[in-house]
Amino acid sequence: MVRIGWLATFVLAGFGARPGFPLDPQKAITAFVHTAWTERDGAPSDIRALAQTTDGYLWLGTSSGLFRFDGVRFARFEPRRREVFPGTRIQFMLAARDGSLWIVFRPGKLSRLRDGHVTSYSGIPLAATLVEGSDGTIIAATANGLLRFRDGVWKDAGKEWGFPGRLARHVYYDKSGTLWVFTGDRVVYLPAGESRFVDAGKTGGGGDFAQAPDGAIWLADTGRSAHTVRRPRDLSPMTEVRVGATAVLFDRNGSLWISSAGDGLRRVAYPDRIDGHAIAQYGPEAEQFSAKDGLSGDYVHCLMEDREGNIWSGTSRGLDRFRESTFTPVSVDHPDAPRGFTASKDGSLWTYGLGDAQVVRIGPQGDQKALLSQVPLYSMCEDAAGGVWTVSALSLWHWRASFQRVPLPKGAAARTFFGIACDQAGAIWLFDRGNGLLRFDHGALTRIAVQSHEDHEFGYLYVDRRGRVWLGQYDHVRHYDHGKLQDFGPSDGLPAGGIFTFFDDRAGNVWAGGDGGLSKFENGRFRVLTASHGLAARSVFGVAEDDLGYWWLASESGVLRVAPGDLDAAIGDPAYQIHYRSFNTLDGLPGKPRQVSPLPVVAKTTDGRIWFATTNGIAYANPRRIPINNVPPPVHVETVRIGGKEMTPAAGMALSHRTNDLEIDYTALSLSIPERVLFRYKLEGKDTDWHDAGSRRQAYYEGLAPKEYTFRVMACNNDGVWNEAGAAWAFSVSPAFYQTYWFEALCVSAVALLLAAAYQFRIRQIARGMNTRFDERLAERTRLAREFHDTLLQTIQGSKMVADDALKHTSDAARMRDAMERLSEWLGQAIQEGRTALSSLRSSTTERNDMAEALRRAGGECQFQRPIEFVLSVQGPSRELHPIVRDEVYRIGYEAIRNACVHSEGNLLNVELDYVEDLVLRVRDNGKGIDPELAANGKGGHFGVTGMYERASRLHGRLTISSSSGSGTQVKLVVPDSIAFRQSDPSRRIRFLKRVRHLVQR
């Protein structure tokens, strides 16, 4: 063992300017927050090399391939298609300043990973290690000496520099630019600006280099130790740590880390001076951290410090990280974890608890001494003279050089003490469950107040700087102010639940903490901080104020550090938002602040440290050294999943229109506390505002419309430092053919054409309807014209001729009288013919459906004109006719009956109406018959017969007129049942079935 002394005033050149928060050299290695990842956590085993590229990723080189780690997820790296690695067993890696990663595979194969592409180099003779110069040149140690990579070409540098020998195993650049090379049995170096190597002497096996803050070069000697390398004419003794070293590393504070093959980690802190003595010493006594302390494995292959100041080690079984923490745990020799403590004026901290716990005094230098065992204590205080007082359930104890039981006055009733407090006048205040508030002074015990409620078995007793005594219980506080006793409850603003602590701030204000939170006593009542102030603490178990003015609150959710003045500002303004920082186990706190009974769980010692009692031990925070991570995390969009298929995002990527479920995976490279990394993201083109994703590292979108999008994500580290530039991924969703502009234009055109066609169709439909109505009206007018022409007009014309003849012979009275008689007869006939025409118009409208009755009336009119026998017969049950059919059939029948009545000269007229199948109408007479030409075409200038044919045609019926001189004339009309009758007529189905049966029988 050799003692080493470095100048305490040495300035750590280069390290102070680097970002991140370095590890405190005054802390033991066990005081750092250590995290181990093994195969159970998804980490690979047998990690041989570590490197962090400029994009923030941590790369792990193993014997089974290359892995990437973002602090949360391990991912095996696979080269792109048609790109391959020359092997799987990685022995060394170098992260270059241009963002590339150089990888050395066993046995000596070399590859370069840059921007996701792999380039492998052949012709490199068994490369071992690499180093990057200040100008970006890569130097490789190979079996044939030194090679230099510049402008994409490897060249032999050994001849240029006069490299001695042939084999080079390790290369290293120190801060001065000197190139160090381990050749296998000796170390040589090339000073910056020189052209020849200098021999530094023989050494053992190994060869990993590191430079100490004082400039000394250290070498890891696997077979022997980690030691310094002496230059020629250096007469100082070699400093070493006797452990089989595999790698050496100096962190930013200058502490030396050594990895070993089977002996875990060793650490020697950067020497500082306390009381004029160096506290760091190299040798076997250097701190050790191994598997029994939680290291993933004792075979440690590599070491690395990341950009945030964390120390990483790769072992045969996994990955380890050491990082700075706010809290430093302190192990105390207690049967159970301490439940309360008290700070004394000499800088000591007194810890105690219930059950079989013991009192342990932790001195200012960290020394511990057990002073009282197997005495369950409930509270402790220090008097003005520096004496420590404590109570158990039945006893009062006092300590000066040792603990002594204090006798109580004779005749005093049985006591059950649950609280104690000391005032500045030297009196001791006690809370007794059965006797209330007591005062012990110079051996005299005086009752101040009786117990107010039987259910208040416990109480927290406190004396402020003004000598006022406060007793906190459940939903109740007793206040004793120099003889005046006052009680406070919920009506006085006291929050509900138990009161666990009181605190007297610098301004002399008293605060109370408990189940209901933190409240301030002001103007005779309590004022509570509520959730509207943004304070995370629902319950407060302890309070302290550090030398910088910050408040420290122990709560059920952890420890809160509140900015100076914020609590008072929140009390005065209900809308004020409190600024605070939250700490938990991720910050080194052993557990949650413990509060099972009203014991003090927060204390401030004279050196400014704030102590906390937790469910898993005690820890302290140094308010003047709170780690702040000021490194904004690099942000990356890693992968994209579409319908479960994973792909690498590329700028301008066009996604299919079938993209319904889109998952975007992103990450941020803050490796200190990745659990506290927070994200915000927004999809430009869809989102109008940022989404707060918390710690979630995925974004999900559904049903994206075809257009261009840009996904943006930003992140902050564990201390809220945001990388607002973040990362962006631009992509587009391709439209389907039915989502294109030309298709939309085609659809618009088609719709326009359809509307135009529909419009034209409707116009034509309306026109056809109007034309049909016009045709019907014209046909009706034509019929009326025929009616009037054949009857009324001819009669009127004849009357006019008689009148004209009479006017020519006005002097012939007899002739005039004869003419007037004939004129009167003819005018009477005209009146009768007009009535007959009107009757033909009314009958179809007045008769709803009884065609037989209408025809019978028409026959009656015929009999009125001249004597003729009229016979009407009906075949089958009467059926409902369509109104139009009814009108047309009636008019045809009426015309046939009228013609027979006027022109047949017969004495018998038969009318038959048949409903059995089709509608059949027959009109027969026994008259003189009708000329076949007239029966077929009607009489010129007359419209009777012609009108009958036209009406039958409109009904799609068949009209036949047959005649002979011996049998008279027959008019027969047949109208198909599908046209003549209502479609709902059930008899139609019956007739259809009869026809089917008839066809089957045939």
Structure description:
A hairpin with a 2-residue loop joins strand 53 (551-555) and strand 54. The protein is elongated and about 180 Å long. Helix 4 packs antiparallel against helix 6 and helix 5 runs parallel beside helix 6. It has a 5-stranded mixed β-sheet with strand order 61-67-66-63-64, with no helix packed on it. The protein has 10 helices and 72 strands. The protein is an alpha+beta fold. Helices cover 18% and strands 37% of the residues. The model is unreliable at 1-17, 272-284 and 843-847 (pLDDT under 50). The chain folds into 5 domains: 29-324, Methylamine Dehydrogenase, Chain H (7 Propeller), CATH 2.130.10; 329-621, Methylamine Dehydrogenase, Chain H (7 Propeller), CATH 2.130.10; 635-734, Immunoglobulin-like (Sandwich); 740-846, no CATH class; 851-1002, 2-Layer Sandwich (Heat Shock Protein 90).
Comma- or semicolon-separated keywords:
single chain; 1002 residues; alpha+beta; Methylamine Dehydrogenase, Chain H; Immunoglobulin-like; 5 domains
Can you tell me the CATH topology of the largest domain? Methylamine Dehydrogenase, Chain H
Tally of separate helices:
10
Q: How much strand?
A: 35-45%
Count the domains: 5
Q: Assign the CATH architecture of the largest domain.
A: 7 Propeller
Q: Could you state the CATH homologous superfamily of the largest domain? A: YVTN repeat-like/Quinoprotein amine dehydrogenase
Query: Could you describe the largest sheet, including whether it forms a barrel?
Result: 5 strands, mixed
